[in-house]
């Protein structure tokens, strides 16, 4: 199975800051990477697919980049509603695999 | 709007079985692949299984292969997960999720989840 290494596992930031989360795949997955946001007690929500395409209704302060094995999610101008846990997932092949998650907390 | 509602979770003894359901609405169910993804308490997301739009293709995580069966009834817009030989490590919230494109896309909509607890 393809391993996805996500970092950092947590970070603290203030409203208005920009933050970047990284995922690295153990092999080339082209651009078959998605990013999800999950708030406590809630289901994950799709933010970005195909590494950089925003899902419908997702604010433009979220952006994704990368291809091959290295990918980033950047949140510009953090808003209060953005504090959550973020996961990346490869869908290049089965079994699909997720990163370990990054918890974005308020500083 | 897309709506996915899981049901069937509960407390079950190790070695027993349980069937989860996911009722879909707001989209043409028979056109899309569907997934099950689980999340153990306090842990990350763990992909479980996928079924193609017509049920002809299915894939499973190694951890559930041979114990879990994914199926669907397109006439009732419902997805199922038959779980047998349950283990303590299967304890999790189980989410159903719609594939964005066949069975080769990201999962674009998720249900609220149903909790399965495997305990004696």
Short summary:
The complex is a heterodimer of chains A (107) and B (120). Chain A is mainly β. In chain A, 0% of the residues lie in helices and 50% in strands.
In words, what does this structure look like?
The complex is a heterodimer of chains A (107) and B (120). By secondary structure, chain A is mainly beta. In chain A, 0% of the residues lie in helices and 50% in strands. In chain A, strand 4 and strand 5 (45-49) form a beta hairpin. The model of chain A has no long low-confidence stretch (mean pLDDT 97). Chain B is an all-beta fold and 120 residues long. Chain B is 0% helix and 51% strand. Chain B has no helices and 11 strands. Chain B is globular, with a radius of gyration of 13 Å. The model of chain B has no long low-confidence stretch (mean pLDDT 97).
List keywords for this structure.
heterodimer; A: 107 residues; mainly beta; 7-stranded mixed beta sheet; 4-stranded antiparallel beta sheet; 0% helix; 50% strand; B: 120 residues; globular
Mean pLDDT of chain A: 97
Uncertain spans of chain B: none
Strand content of chain A is over 45%
Order of helices and strands of chain B: EEEEEEEEEEE
Mean pLDDT of chain B: 97
Shape of chain B: globular
- What is Rg of chain B? 13 Å
- Got a strand count of chain A? 11
> Biggest sheet of chain B, in brief?
7 strands, mixed
Globally, the shape of chain A reads: globular
Layout of secondary structure:
The complex is a heterodimer of chains A (107) and B (120).
Chain A: E1 4-7, E2 10-13, E3 19-25, E4 33-38, E5 45-49, E6 53-54, E7 62-67, E8 70-75, E9 85-90, E10 97-98, E11 102-106
Chain B: E1 3-7, E2 10-12, E3 18-25, E4 34-39, E5 45-51, E6 58-60, E7 68-73, E8 78-83, E9 92-99, E10 107-110, E11 114-118
Parallel strand pairs in B: 2-11
Antiparallel strand pairs in B: 1-3, 3-8, 4-5, 4-9, 5-6, 7-8, 9-10, 9-11
């Amino acid at each position: 199975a393809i391993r996805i290494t996500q970092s950092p596992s947590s970070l603290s930031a203030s409203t208005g800051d920009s933050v970047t989360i990284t995922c690295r795949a153990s092999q080339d997955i082209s651009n078959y990477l998605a990013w999800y946001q999950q708030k406590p007690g809630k289901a994950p929500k799709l933010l970005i697919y195909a590494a950089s395409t925003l899902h419908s209704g997702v604010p433009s302060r979220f952006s994704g980049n990368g291809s091959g094995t290295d990918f980033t999610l950047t949140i510009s101008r953090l808003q209060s509603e953005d504090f959550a846990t973020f996961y990346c997932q490869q869908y290049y092949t089965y079994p699909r695999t997720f990163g370990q998650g990054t918890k974005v907390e308020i500083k | 709007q897309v709506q996915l509602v899981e049901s069937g979770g509960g407390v079950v003894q190790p070695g027993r079985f349980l069937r989860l359901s996911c009722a879909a609405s707001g989209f043409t169910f028979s056109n899309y692949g569907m997934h099950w993804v689980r999340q153990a308490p306090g842990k990350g997301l763990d992909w479980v299984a996928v079924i193609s739009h017509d049920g002809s293709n299915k894939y499973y995580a190694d951890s559930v292969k041979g114990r879990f069966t994914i199926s669907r009834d397109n006439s009732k817009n419902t997805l199922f997960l038959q779980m047998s030989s349950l283990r303590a490590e299967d304890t999790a919230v189980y989410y159903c999720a719609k594939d964005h494109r066949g069975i080769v896309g990201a999962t674009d909509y998720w249900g609220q989840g149903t909790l399965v607890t495997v305990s004696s």
